Amino acid sequence: MLAAKMKNATAYNKSISGFTLIEILVALVIFVILAVMSYGGLRTVLAAQESLDRNSDRLANVQFLFLMMGRDIEQAVPRRVRDNYGELQSPVLGGGGVLELSRGGWRNPAGLPRSDLLRIAYNVEEGSLLRQTWSVLDRAQDSEPVKRLMLDNVSEIEVRFLAVDNKWQNSWPPASDTKIVQLPRAIEVAVITEDWGKLARVFRNTAVKISPPKQVQP
Question: In which band, very low, low, confident or very high, does the pLDDT at 65 lie, cut at 50, 70 and 90?
Fold first, then answer.
């Protein structure tokens, strides 16, 4: 009877015995491996999400930049201006990484005593593409533009102009425009970025009327 009780007690003790040290170490190793794999996967997902958000913001800024450029160029008007030194300048002035023009359509909902025309300039300063505006067309020596950051990480901009003879010019006004009042038919702007390379768009000036091609009589 006593032997049977001791046998049952031994079997019970075996059934409730814990893990051995080796089993615990193996479990810990497996847990560490799974934790490292999970952290690596999570870090990859977070990095991908961060890159996606950054590129989405970048794309939105580029689209807004070209939207503003398009509005400015499409509303260009043949209004000459005087610079800070009193020199007469072309309605559209460009070349060497600078684009400057006179545009209409400056809204005046408050009915302020000002013109609906605006002088605009785009240029790159210290890696930033800026849009500059002057509230007056004929400037004084102390006239300062209002600068707005449009896009960062920009090395330069390239500008070309399509003349009325359908020839591209690298600067404006052309040498043949002695009165400096001619407007280009279209303007191509290429923004050279440090991350996305060259981004180019062509904008038509709606103020320039394009004549239909002449019909050739048989």
Answer: very high
